[in-house]
Write a structure and sequence with these properties.
Number of helices: 5
Distance between the termini: 33 Å
Low-confidence stretches: none
Helix content: over 70%
Mean pLDDT: 90
Structural class: mainly alpha
Strand content: under 5%
């Protein structure tokens, strides 16, 4: 299947019908999951209401790291095998990864203020996400 979709014309035919279906499914799952995570989940006994930001912060951090890993693999494939779609995929994923990294930094700061008492700590995890966002 992967070698079948490596042809740009076949990939465009496949994505023409697959993208709207997966987009609608993602919108439906977001519409169901966001209220359950942010409104209906109980407060934590230690962190109180601020624990709900973790339902946004942790997935954005995971997606950001995953997107940057995807970019590294796609860039490697484009560099080694000179595949045009790999370069296009890496270039298209860069702004999405930056948005997820920014959301991770913002939600982490929102959570860190009441939990740690400060908006920012020069911790290794925070600094590495900032470096990913800047690059």
């Amino acid at each position: 299947m992967l070698s079948y979709l490596a042809n740009p014309a076949r990939f465009m035919r496949f994505s023409a019908w697959a993208a709207p279906i997966t987009g609608a499914l993602a919108a439906l799952l977001f519409a169901v999951g966001a209220p359950w995570g942010l409104l209906f989940s109980p407060a934590d006994y230690q962190q109180g209401e601020t624990v709900r930001i973790m339902y946004v912060h942790v997935p954005t951090a995971s997606w950001s790291m995953g997107i940057f890993a995807f970019m590294a693999v796609a860039s490697f494939v484009g560099l080694v095998w000179r595949h045009a779609l790999a370069d296009v995929a890496a270039r298209a994923a860069a702004p999405v990864g930056a948005v997820y990294a920014a959301l991770c930094l913002i939600t982490g700061s929102i959570w860190g203020r009441p939990t740690w008492g400060t908006w920012w700590e020069w911790d290794g995890r925070l600094t590495s996400m900032l470096v990913l966002f800047i690059t």
